[in-house]
TrEMBL record:
TM segment ranges: 6-27
Keyword annotations: Membrane, Transmembrane, Transmembrane helix
Protein species of origin: Hyphobacterium vulgare
Name of the featured protein: Uncharacterized protein
Length: 270
């Protein structure tokens, strides 16, 4: 074989390698298919973070601002294609249909590789499809309301009936903004005439069993971050025996619970 023939074969190999590389990049870098309604990747079950705002009691404007901060912090913690949902807890324990925000993060301009995608175009898409609707949802979520019941536990369990938050979903994380003053048929913290809070609360094992009898064990494996709203006249119970009681209930349900106090004091807006 002459040197010219060898050089020709070498050039063909180089060209074939370049074409193969271009074809590979075209396949691997093409945009994934997204669901138009949720912005989630089609065929993929994403990790899901949920923020629940307990609106069965009033809260102060300072607390309302803090709640908005909690939601925006959850937005900023999302990875690309992870899902964020916002719900408010009403007096019936219902979460569905209280807000329309449940979307996957399509990625902001800062979250894409500028070698392959245009950050400005991606940021504009992010603002239009994700950040903008989130701001709209915030306007209603942080508006104080009031209700005669507070079925916190039932609402948490009910959420696991949703396909997007059942036990098959990875990375299930709930941020619950609440005073944790449960008031429903399953148990109530009220009724101080019946004695101290330790004496009037039912056995946490029985509470967990009653909840699972109604809703199943879907809460098992959930991580729960409680942002506690302090209530005037309840601070001592909230920080001590009530918190201990909730921890016992959550332990029975297989929930990993973490606590922190929501800034803004214990005042309320009438």
């Amino acid at each position: 074989m002459s040197g010219r023939d060898a050089l020709g074969i070498f050039n063909l190999i180089v060209v074939a390698g370049v074409l193969a590389g271009i074809s590979y990049l075209a396949i691997t870098l093409q945009p994934e298919e997204y669901d138009r309604d949720t912005l989630c990747v089609v065929g993929v079950t994403p990790p899901h973070r949920v923020v629940i705002i307990d609106k069965t009691d009033l809260y102060s404007m300072e607390q309302a601002e803090a709640i908005a901060g909690v939601i925006l912090n959850e937005r900023d913690r999302l990875g690309v294609s992870e899902r964020l949902s916002l719900f408010e807890l009403n007096e019936n324990g219902n979460l569905s249909d209280t807000n329309n925000f449940s979307l996957c993060n399509p990625g902001s301009g800062e979250q894409v590789n500028p070698l392959y995608r245009n950050p400005e175009r991606i940021q504009a898409r992010y603002e239009a499809l994700f950040a903008g609707p989130l701001q709209t949802a915030l306007a209603d979520l942080v508006t104080p309301k009031d209700a005669p019941q507070s079925p916190i536990l039932e609402a948490l369990a009910g959420l696991t009936h949703e396909d997007s938050f059942d036990r098959s979903v990875p990375g299930r994380h709930i941020v619950l903004v609440s005073d944790m003053l449960q008031n429903s048929e399953i148990f109530t913290v009220y009724g101080r005439g019946r004695g101290s809070i330790e004496d009037r609360l039912p056995d946490p094992v029985e509470v967990a069993r009653a909840l699972e009898a109604q809703h199943g064990d879907g809460l098992m494996g959930v991580t729960l971050e409680i942002r506690l709203i302090p209530r005037a006249g309840w601070e001592e119970d909230q920080a001590g025996p009530l918190r201990d009681y909730w921890d016992l209930v959550f332990r029975q349900l297989g929930v990993r619970a973490y606590w922190s106090e929501l800034p803004g004091g214990s005042g309320a807006v009438g």
